[in-house]
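Researcher: First entry.
Model:
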Amino acid sequence: MIRFPSKPARRLAFILASGLGAALLIAGGAQADPKVLATVDGAPITEDDVADALLDIGPGLPQKLEGPEREKYALDYLIDLRLVAKKAESDKLDATSEFARRLAYYHEKLAMETLLSSVAKSAATEDAERKAYDEAAKANPPVEEIHARHILLPTEDEAKAALARVKAGEDFAKVATELSKDPASDGGDLGWFSKDRMVPEFADAAFKLQPGQISDPVKSQFGWHIIKVEDRRMKTFPPFEQVKEQAARFVAQKAQSDLIASLRQAAKIERADEAAKPAAPATPAAPATPAAPKTP
C-alpha cells in the first residue's frame, strides 16, 4: 500500500466512507432536464431521483441485483416513499419536534457534503496531485527487500537438527511446516520485507545471504532461526500514473481535513463529555514508551 505524506483526520475518512465520495462523483453532473420515469399523483420521479436513492440504499441491496433491475428496485422504492410520506404528512407526523430535529440533522449533513465535495473538486488539480506524489516518492526512496523463509525453534540443538535435515536434501518448507514454532508463517514463508522490518540479529543474518543460501542457526529474542533467502529485489516507488487515483484521493481528503481543522480552530467548542484540560507542564514531557519489538 502506498503511503502519502500525512493522514487526513479519521473522522473525515469515516464521512467519506459513508457516502461523500459518491456525492463528489455526481456533483455538477445532473442533467438540465432529467427524464421522468414515473409520476405519483402527478408529482414526477426522475432519473436524478433514482440516482439519489441508489446512493442512499444501494449499499444495502443484494449484489446480484444489477443494471435495470437495480434501477427498477430504486424506482419502486421511491414510489412507496412518496406514498407513505404523503400519508405521514396528512397525519401531521412531520409537525413533531422530533421530526424537526431529525430534518435539521439531515439538512446540515447534506450541506456539509455539498461543501466538502466542492472543496475536494477544487483541490484535486493535476499540479496538486503531482506535488503530493513527489513528496511521497521522496519520502519512500528505493529500498532493498528479500523474500525469505525461516524455521523457528526454542533451542540451538533443535535448530542444528533442523538444519541438518535441510542440508541433507529435505524441502525447507516441509521441514518448517513440521517443526517451526512460528504459527503465522506457511512453510516458514515470511514474504518480502526490508531490513528494518525485522529484529537486528535476524535481519543482519538474512541480508548477508544470496538467493538459495541457508543460514547457520541465528539466535534472537524469539528463539533460534534457520533462514533461507528465496530472492532479492530493489523496491521502488511506483510511477505517477499507477497511483494517480490514490494521489487524487489524498489531495481531496487533505483539503477537506484542513478545512474542518480551520473551522474547529476558529470556533468556540465546549463539550460536556470532556473535563477541563490541565495546564501545560512546565517541564518537558517524559519520552514516549518504546515500540514493541519487531518480530520476523
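Researcher: Second entry.
Model:
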Amino acid sequence: MRIVSLQPSITVTLAGLGALDQVVACTRCCKDISPEVASGQQLIIEDSWSANTEQILAARPDLVIASVPYRMESLAAILRAGIRVLVLAPKSLADVYGDIRTLAALVDKYVAGKKLVSGLEDEIAQTREATRGRPLQRVFCEEWGKPVIASQPWVVELVEAAGGIAVGVPGQQTTAAAVAASNPEVILAAWCGAGDRVPLHKLILREGWAGTSAVREHRVYCVADELFNTPAHTLAGGLRAIRWALHPTLFWQPKGVRSIDDAENVGEDIA
C-alpha cells in the first residue's frame, strides 16, 4: 500500500509498527519525531491543515491518512480529487489506542500494534502505582500561548496518571487571569509547532502569574511539542515529563523537558 501521511502522529505510529516503507509522502514535521524520515525516500508535503492536492496526487497514493488538527476545506479538496482518505480525530487515550489498532490493521501489523498499545498502557499503570497516595497537585498544561489554550484531553489523563489535577478545560481557550485564579502548583507549556522553544521567562510575566505557586517555586517547564501534541504511543515521553515535573525526587529527568531555571534566552524568536 502507498500511504500519504498528513500528520506526525500517523507517521510515527506507522514507523513504530514497522511499516514506514509504505509511507510514500509525509510532512516536514514528521522528520522531527521520526528521524528515519530524514534519511528516507518520502516526499515532503503539506500537512492536514494546509494539504496540497497536487502534491498528494504526485505521490500516487492508495490511501491518504489525516488526523487532527485539520481543515474541512483541505479534506474536501482531497475527496474531490477522488483519493481514498482515512481521517482520525482522537480526543482521549482510548481513542489513541483505537487509532493505533486501526493503523496496525491497515498495514497487517496486528502484533506490533498490540505491543505499542500495551507499552503505553503499562507505563501509565506503573506511574499510577508509583505515585499512589501522594498529595494531588494542581497542574496547568498549555498547548498554545497567544491566545492561551489548555492542552488536549489525553494530556489531562496523563496528568491524572502522574498524581495531578489538570486545571482549565482541555483543548479550550482560557485567559492568563483564569489560570492564575486556579493557582497551579506546576505549569507545563508545550506549544504546537514550537519544538522545545517556549519562552518561559516571558510566560511568567502574564497577569497574575507571579503570585502562583508554580512561579514562586520555580516549577514552570517547557515540554517538547511532540511529547504532548502527537497522539501516538510516543505520549509515553509526555508522561515521563509530567511525572518528573510533579515528583522530581521520585523520577529521573527525561529528555524533552526543561525548567524555568534552565530557560534563559530560549524561545526569543517565537515569543
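Model: Note on the second entry: The radius of gyration is 19 Å.
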